[in-house]
Specification:
- Belongs to the peptidase S33 family.
- The chain is of the alpha/beta class and 454 residues long.
- It has one domain: 3-Layer(aba) Sandwich (Rossmann fold).
- Helix content is 45%, strand content 12%.
- The protein is built from 20 helices and nine strands.
- A nine-stranded mixed beta sheet has the order 1-2-3-5-4-6-7-8-9, sandwiched between helices.
- Helix 8 runs antiparallel to helix 18.
- The longest helix is centred in the first third of the chain and has 22 residues.
- The radius of gyration is 23 Å and the shape is globular.
- The chain binds 2-acetamido-2-deoxy-beta-D-glucopyranose (NAG).
- 2-acetamido-2-deoxy-beta-D-glucopyranose binds next to helix 2.
Length: 454
């Protein structure tokens, strides 16, 4: 009897110690908010001007690209009876490349992007590009400044379908957004660095500096994919600057969350009555991840090697990127010739590829997979909770699905969470209507959070 009691006490104490370990918050890393990422060393004075910018797909570039596409070598045919199971279906790829050469209207696509005001400004030595749309509304409509951050292989282009809605008053809401959609450094029209260490923490610092440069001391943030890694660090480091955070790829990778996710597989419906099937059974989920995440390890370990091939061949670049964009857009279509790509507009997909081709930024953008896993400051901040009010939106085919009880480990004030039975990873391109609706609902939840605190 005494032995049993003693054992129980010991087990209880060990569990408590283990729990304390899992939930302990690491020491806050020391971050230089003005670290220099430009070539050479920091000058005495930095150019702080804001310059209007226009996107130009010029004739020289178009001619050269078309020549390379037309002169491509013959691809190996897919195996008999095989769709996308071995990777990019080359019959399908050929069709898309023909479309890119013959039908894709470079000038018109650039014109569509240029409907929005574009700018560049130098932050910490790098020229950053962003779209800024200021709504024209009367005084009784509140204007919420919103920073929007994309992921890989995207750019601010990902948001052009939602910007008009976000900047126009909607029924039932007394506010609109002023949108600042930025290209991450090394992505789209933003300059990349030639210094190691520009990880999501440091990009979060840069993006906050961009908002401060534009005069916003307090603002809202929307992000997914790598953009959400960067902005999750931003809200953790600088909660005083961010009034609300809307994520479309919400996850917590705190130690406690990982353990909860594993334990959850014992009683999935009990921990998440919403959509347990999106992550459990874990074996099914990990089979999908294992099948589709080879690129992740490749880009984490050797981004520059794959970068040589992708920089040199537009057909190779298109094949590589289309396969990635497909598998996260519709998991039910992985074994079709397009692999899920047809959930998106082909012109949107080709805009993304063209922007990377024009800016020769496949290496600088792909390196983020490497920088994202190399630095202790990243891990320390991942394990630190944040109190910035947060809204999670979960689209059907998003790669990451975490139940709310796990998200709250990281986002203590999870003020809203909604699952949709449609959509995927590139939410603003795929389901722009629902994406914008959710963002308005989140804006209302953030305003409500702050008015209750007063
Ligand atoms: C055309 O665009 C390419 C890619 O942006 C650029 O490198 C080149 O300098 C441009 N050429 C002209 C003549 O403007």
């Amino acid at each position: 009897m005494k032995f049993l009691l003693l054992t129980s006490v010991l087990i209880a104490i060990s569990l408590r110690i283990f729990y304390n370990y899992l939930t302990s918050v690491p020491e806050r890393p020391k971050i230089d908010p003005q670290r220099w990422w430009g070539s050479g060393s920091k000058p005495a004075k930095e150019d702080e001007s804001i310059r209007p910018f226009k996107i130009d797909f010029n004739d020289t570039m178009i001619q050269d690209l078309k020549q390379r596409l037309i002169n491509r070598r013959r691809f190996t045919k897919p195996l008999e009876g095989i769709q996308s199971e071995y990777g990019m279906n080359t019959d399908y790829l050929n069709k898309v490349l023909t479309y890119w050469v013959e039908k894709y209207d470079f000038k018109k696509r650039a014109e569509l992007l240029n409907k929005f005001p574009h700018y560049k400004t130098r932050i910490q030595g790098l020229d950053l590009h962003y779209i800024r749309v200021t709504p024209k509304v009367n005084k009784n409509i509140k204007v919420l400044p919103l920073l929007m951050l994309h992921g890989w292989p995207s750019s601010s282009k990902e948001f052009v379908k939602v910007i008009p809605t976000l900047t126009t008053p909607q029924d039932g809401y007394d506010f609109v957004f002023e949108v600042i959609a930025a290209d991450l450094p090394g992505f789209g029209f933003s300059e990349g660095t030639n210094k190691p260490g520009l990880n999501p923490v440091q990009i979060g610092v840069m993006m906050r500096n961009l908002m401060l440069r534009l005069g916003f001391k307090q603002f809202y943030v929307q992000a997914g994919d790598w953009g959400s890694q960067c902005s999750t660090h931003m809200v953790t480091l600088f909660p005083e600057n961010v009034l609300g955070y809307h994520i479309n790829m919400a996850g917590s990778i705190r130690r406690i969350s990982i353990v909860k996710l594993l334990l959850g597989s014992l009683f999935p419906t009990w921990i998440d009555s919403d959509h347990p099937e999106r992550v459990y059974p874990l074996t099914k989920y990990f089979t999908y991840v294992l099948r589709e995440s080879g690129y992740f390890h490749l880009q984490f370990t050797k981004p520059d090697t794959i970068g040589v091939a992708l920089t040199d061949s537009p057909a190779g670049l298109a094949g590589y990127l289309m396969e990635k964009m497909a598998i996260v857009s519709n998991r039910d279509q992985m074994d079709t010739p397009h692999g899920g790509l047809e959930s998106l507009d082909l012109d949107d997909v080709l805009d993304t590829i063209t922007i990377i081709w024009v800016n020769e930024c496949i290496v600088t953008s792909t390196r983020l997979y490497s920088e994202g896993f190399r630095w202790a400051e990243d891990y320390a901040l991942q394990d630190t909770p944040t109190e910035v009010p947060t809204a999670a939106v979960k689209f059907l085919h998003e790669v990451v699905y975490h139940p709310d009880w796990i998200l709250r480990d990281k986002f203590v004030n999870l003020v809203r969470s909604k699952s949709y039975d449609i959509g995927g990873h590139f939410a603003a391109l795929h389901t722009p209507k629902e994406f914008a609706e959710d963002l308005f609902a989140a804006g209302a939840a953030f305003l409500n959070f702050h008015s209750q605190k007063k």
